[in-house]
Amino acid sequence: VLKLVSDAEVAGRGFVATGSDMMLAPYNIAAISIVREFDSLSLFVRENPAQKERLFRLKPLVIQEFNAVRKIIDLKKNQALKSNQRFEGGLDSELMEKIRHLTQEMKDAEMQRLGSWTEKADKDGQRTIRFLLIANLAAFLITAVSLFFLYRDMDARQQVEDKFRETSKKLQVWVEDLEQRNSEFTVLSDTVDLLH
Prior knowledge:
Layout: H1 2-18, H2 25-44, H3 49-77, H4 94-195
């Protein structure tokens, strides 16, 4: 807002000094832009009563400054401006000082709000990081415990399989021993049958 007001005033001074219509382009742009700027600011501060009140006080001051610049431009266009007539309003005027003061108040309030939002976001971010660290630690512990039990179960299974193989080998030896004895018994039986 302050830049647009300054642009309009500088354009007005330039027009008064030169009489060139080209100098009015920044004023015309600022006059159009200030309406959009106030609309945007109104939306931006609609839920902030203090800023809304500052904007309410700022708007008529800005309109007054634009009107003062417009009056000087019109006087110059109509050749009614006397060469020694002082440029009313202006960057050093009381009106501009009020505008500067209000815009600075609004900026300071927004910076303070931004600072508190940043502080809150930092705290929320720290809480989120702590939560994620705890969640990751819990996930790691759950995985470690699961792996422990899985390994333990696998180890127990391996022991059972080893015992099964050992028992299977013993059974195989007994079966082979029985087959050997059976074979010997058959030979002995055949020998007895021959002797009879």
